[in-house]
Specification:
The protein has a domain at 18-41 and 72-153. The protein is built from 7 helices and 2 strands; from the N terminus they run ααββααααα. The protein has helices spanning 2-12, 18-39, 51-57, 70-90, 94-112, 125-140, 148-153, and strands spanning 42-44, 47-49. It has a two-stranded antiparallel sheet. Strand 1 and strand 2 form a beta hairpin. It is globular and about 65 Å long. The model has no long low-confidence stretch (mean pLDDT 92).
Length: 155
């Protein structure tokens, strides 16, 4: 019984390394969102072009999301994802940067919901996973030591 109690205390002491888990969450999400945002832009002679993604957002086909102002919302998605990735990497304004990322994930959830849960069939599994990871950072913050928020907001 003493062994279990001692082992349990060691597990509890892992809380002192929470900043590493939060750093890994931030860096993983930054990677995912950076490439998701950049992929929405096709480059034409060095000029970003969002027409393909805006076409998906616009009214039209049965797979389209039927947004008004699709180019505007397309650029908002790119800014939220790529910009959010930069802020997550730096750990700067992390909680603020997460708000638009959650909105983009809710749009993705809406789009993927008819396909069910499993990500293999285009379902919402990964979308929900990303939302949960973003909520963890929202609640616990970006972590100590490896985030600018920690150093700026330190008392």
């Amino acid at each position: 019984m003493k062994f279990l109690s001692s082992f349990n205390q060691k597990l509890i002491n892992l809380i002192y390394f929470d900043f590493i888990i939060l750093l890994f969450f931030r860096l993983y999400l930054a990677y995912v969102f950076w490439f998701a945002g950049i992929r929405k832009i096709a480059w034409d002679n060095g000029i970003p072009n969002i027409d393909r993604f805006a076409g998906f957002l616009a009214a039209g086909g049965e797979d389209n999301l039927n947004f008004i102002f699709p180019h505007f919302f397309g650029w908002l998605a790119v800014l939220a994802e790529a910009g959010g990735a930069i802020f997550l990497t730096l750990g700067l304004f992390s909680r603020w940067a997460i708000i638009p990322l959650i909105f983009t994930m809710l749009v993705a959830f809406y789009y993927h919901f008819p396909n069910g849960w499993n990500s293999d069939s285009g379902g919402v599994e990964m979308t929900v996973t990303y939302i949960l990871m973003l909520l963890v950072i929202t609640v616990y913050g970006p972590g100590k030591y490896f985030s600018l928020d920690y150093w700026v907001l330190r008392k």
